[in-house]
Amino acid sequence: KKATAKNALALSKEQFKDSIVKHLRSTLGTDEARANNQAWWKATCSAVNELVFDRLTETSKANAENDSRAVHYLSLEFLMGRLTVNNLHNVGVFDAARDALTDLGKDINDICDEEPDMALGNGGLGRLAACFIDSLATLNYPAVGYGIHYEHGLFRQEIQGGRQIERPDSWREYGNPWEICRPESIQEVPLYGYVETVFGEDGKMRKVWHAGRQIKGVPWDIPVVGYEAKTVNVLRLWESKAADFFDWDVFNAGGYVDSQAEKSQAEAVSKVLYPNDESEQGKELRLIQQYFFCACSLKDIIRRYKRNHTDFSQFSKQAVIQLNDTHPTVAIPELMRILIDEEGLVWDDAWKICSETFAYTNHTLLPEALEKWAVYLFEKVLPRHLEIIYEINRRFLEDEVEAKWPGNDEMKRHLSIIEEGETRMVRMAFLCVVTCFKTNGVAAMHSELVKQDLFPEFCELWPERFENVTNGVTPRRWLLACNEELASMYTDLVGDQWPRDLTLLSKANEFADDAKFQKKFMDIKHTKKVQLAKVIKDLCDVEVDPNAIFDIQIKRLHEYKRQHLNVLHILALYRRLLENPNYEMNKRVFIFGAKAAPGYKLAKDIIYAINKIADKVNNDERIQGKLKVVFLPNYRVTLAEKLFPAADVSEQISTAGYEASGTGNMKFALNGALTLGTLDGANVEIAEEVGDENVFIFGLNCDEVKALKAAGYNPWDYYYGNPELKAVLDWLETDYFTPGAPGELASIKQSLLEGGDPYLCLADFASYSEAHIAVDKMYSDKKGWARKAIINSASVGKFNSDRSIEDYVDRIWHLEKVMPN
Ligand code: 26Q
C-alpha cells in the first residue's frame, strides 16, 4: 500500500483533473490550451487549497471550542522552501495530482519547479522552525508560528568571475497561492517617543508611553498541513505598512513627498531579511523588526485569549511562548508593559505571568553571535521597555544574586543584564535566562556547554531551568518528498507508517549485509547521483562521473564550519596526484554549496578560492578526471533536496564545541551518506545511533580544543611541522590558481597563520587528511560501504523532528493534542 493511498478518497485523479481545469479557467482566467506552467502550478495549488482551507477552518474552530493551550513559536526566520510537493504529500493527494497532471499532458516536476523558494531564513535556525511547525501540525498540537512577512528573503547568490554577488530575492513578485491576507486582524505598533509618569486620583503612579510613530502590522497566514492529519495550523507573518491616518496638514503644507517618505520608512521594516547568521550588527532597523513582530504577535495572542477570559489569571495556562534564539527577546518587556501599563496589573503579578509563559532556545555559543543592544538605541526606539528591563535587572541583582552571593559586587557586574562599558549594552541572552521558565540547547553536547560555559552561574541559581532538546528534521520533506526512490523502497520494506515513526526504518539493519538489498539501495544512490550530475552540468558546466565518491559540504559559509579545511585537503590531494600520477585513489567529486554574509570578507574569499581552485583542477588533464571540485551557486532548500540524496560523504567538520547541533548532518545520514566529522553538536549523537564503526570521526574533541587554546595554540608549529600542509598554504600565495594575480588567495593563508587560526584548521589537518584516506579505502570495499550506508539511513530515526516536538511537549510546553472534525 502506498503511503498516500489512505487519503486518496479525499480527491481522486478525475476530481483533481476537473478541479485543476476549473481553477485554470475561473481563478486564473486562462484555459488548458493557453496556460503556461506558472498558471498550471497555481491552478494545482488552488485545487489543493480546496482541501487545505477547509481543514484550516476546522482546526481553528476545534481550538477555539476546546480553549486549548497552544504554543506560539516566535522566530525571525522560517526557511520554508517550496510548499507544493510537501502539501500534496501531507494532504495525501500526491499520486492523484501527479496522475491528473500526466493525463492533462503535464509533468508534475516541471509544474512544481515553477514555485519560488520561500527563503525567509538564513540557515539552520530558520529551517528548524520550518521542520517544527510541520511536526506540530502532524502531531495535532495547537500551535502558531509567528514571524515577519519579508518582501525579500535571503539574497540570491550569483557567481561572477568566481566571486559571490548578492541579488535581491523576490519570492512573491507574481503572487503566492499559499498565503491568505487577514486585514481583520491588523495591529498597530508604537515606536520612539517618550515616557511620562502620571499620578492618578488614587495617588498611584502610572507610566504612559507617548509614541513618536505608529506602524501597522498586516498578517498573512500560511497554512501548515499536518502529514495525513486533519490539523492545519497557521504560520502568521506580519507585513509592515504605514499607519492608516494620513497627515493632511503635512500634505497641504506641500509635504506630499514627506508623507511618501513616511510610508516607505514604515514599509522598510518588513522589506528584507538580515543576511548575517551568527553575527550581531546592532542596526536600529533590526531592533525595530524584532519589536514590530513581537508586538503584533503578542497583541494577537492576547486578543485570542480574551475571547474566552476576562482576566489574566489563566494566561500562562493557555499560552506558552517559545523564543527561537534571543531574536524575539523584546517580547518579554513588551508583555510586561502590556500587563502593567495597559491592563493595570501590579509588577509581581505581571512578572509571574511572564516567567511562566516564556521559554528560550539557545542556538549558539559563539561570542559574536550573542545578541547585545546598545542602551541608547533602546532608549530611543523603546524607552518604556528600557525602564522595564532596568527594573527586571534591579530586582534580579538585589534579590536573587544578593541572596546567593551576598555582598559580591563583582558577581553582580558579571551577571547584570546591563553590560557596563564605553557603550552600555543590554545582554539579551541574560534577559531570557532570568525570565524564562526553561532554557534549552539543541543537542546533548551543546546543552552541556550552555550550562557549563555560557551560563554557569545562572545554572547554579536555577539548575532546574536548563534542558536539552536535540534537533530533528521532518522525514516528510527530507526523505519522502526529496527521495521518492528510497522512500518507496522503505515503504515496500516496512509499510507506509515510517514517515511518522522513522524508527521503523531500523528494520533495514537486518538487510545491511543482504546482497540484493545492498544492490537496490546503492542503485538508488547511483540514480540520485546521475540526477545530481545533470544539475551540476546545467549550473556549473562541469562533467562529473556518478561513479566517483560524491563528497558534499553544504551549509552557510563560516570560519567555524571550516570550509577552508576542506579546501586545504583538496589542495593536498591535487598535489599528491600531480607529484605521483599513479597515486591510488577512487575518483572523488568535492561539492560545495554556501552563502556568505555580504559583509564577511574572509568567507567571500573562501568562495572565491573554491571557484578558482575548481577552474584549475577540473581542467587539468594531468589528473585524468580523478578529482573534481564544484561550487553550486545559490544554495537553498530546493537545491539541498537534490544534494542530500546524492551524497556518499557528509562533511561535518566544525571545530569541536562550535556547531550547536547541525541538522544537515541528519538529512545526509537519513539518505545514506556517511558522516566525516568532528565530535561536535549532533554528530556525537549520530555516531551513538549508527555506531562508531559507521562514521569517520577525526580531530580534536571539545576538551582538547579548550586545552590547546588554554596552553597557547601556535599554528606556525603545524605549518613548519607538516611539509604537505606548508606546501598547500604556500601555494595559496602564488598565482597558480589565479594566473597573473598572485596573492588573490593569500587572505586564507594569512588568517590561518598571522591571524592565529582561531578555529584550529591546522591543528586538525593531519587527522582530517587521514580520515579521508580511511574514507577512500572503505569506498573500495563496495559491500562494506553499502552496509554502512544502509545502517546510517536505517539508524537515525531519533532525528525525526516529531521526536524533538514530543520532547518539547514533555519537558517544556505540556500541550494536549486536539483532533479537528
Ligand atoms: C543576529 C543578529 C542580527 C542579524 C542576524 C542575526 C542572526 C541570524 C541568524 C544570528 C544567528 C542566526 C542563525 C543561527 C543559526 O542558524 N544557528 C544554527 O541553528 C541550528 C538549529 O538549531 C543548529 O543546528 C546550528 O548548529 C546553528 O549554527
From TrEMBL:
<comment type="function">
    <text>Phosphorylase is an important allosteric enzyme in carbohydrate metabolism. Enzymes from different sources differ in their regulatory mechanisms and in their natural substrates. However, all known phosphorylases share catalytic and structural properties.</text>
</comment>
<dbReference type="InterPro" id="IPR000811">
    <property type="entry name" value="Glyco_trans_35"/>
</dbReference>
<keyword id="KW-0663">Pyridoxal phosphate</keyword>
<dbReference type="InterPro" id="IPR011833">
    <property type="entry name" value="Glycg_phsphrylas"/>
</dbReference>
<comment type="function">
    <text>Allosteric enzyme that catalyzes the rate-limiting step in glycogen catabolism, the phosphorolytic cleavage of glycogen to produce glucose-1-phosphate, and plays a central role in maintaining cellular and organismal glucose homeostasis.</text>
</comment>
<keyword id="KW-0328">Glycosyltransferase</keyword>
<dbReference type="Pfam" id="PF00343">
    <property type="entry name" value="Phosphorylase"/>
</dbReference>
<keyword id="KW-0808">Transferase</keyword>
<dbReference type="InterPro" id="IPR035090">
    <property type="entry name" value="Pyridoxal_P_attach_site"/>
</dbReference>
<comment type="similarity">
    <text>Belongs to the glycogen phosphorylase family.</text>
</comment>
<keyword id="KW-0119">Carbohydrate metabolism</keyword>
<protein>
    <recommendedName>
        <fullName>Alpha-1,4 glucan phosphorylase</fullName>
        <ecNumber>2.4.1.1</ecNumber>
    </recommendedName>
</protein>
